[in-house]
Amino acid sequence: MDDLKSAIEAVLFASGDSVPVGRLSLAFGCEEEEIICSAKDLEDELASAGRGIRLVFLENRLQLCSAPEFAPQIIKALDERKKPTLTKPALEVLAIVAYYQPVTRAYIDQMRGVDSSYTVGVLLERGLIEVSGKLDAPGRPSLFKTTESFLRNTGISSIEELPILPDMTVSDSTEKLRQRVEELRSAVDKDQITISEISV
Fold it and tell me: Is residue 186's pLDDT more than 60?
């Protein structure tokens, strides 16, 4: 098990990018479940030891990333300027894509009530959303979905981990939504999540 953990760590470090669990399974000649089990052990080991790197799960892929608490030192040491945070319209579009993907720009426009072409372009440029195909309809409009970068920046492993939206058909739905927003804002203030500080 220790050898497998070390091998996974070595491959992810050498790659510098996310690597599919299936590829690691083929490379090491073992089942994907063994890779996932060893990766979770490595994830816990890196986090509990206070190391400067973390292992993150991105759907069915694995990647080594720097520990978020050392971001200020990394920026200072590498002389990198902090990337601008997303605007409120960008967060709105990103939320729509995340919860209803794959979606067309027309659907996003309908949900927001305004033209979202510029904002969609910004999110595409930052790599937080991507084109996932074409809708089988007149004009063949593009379909958009979130990317690995979105998962990495929001600190979740899969879309299934997104907070559940309240049922807007019941009478107290607005109050529940307000409470959920306050919970998320509180978590952001405590640096538990970084949804309002997404940068790439």
Answer: no
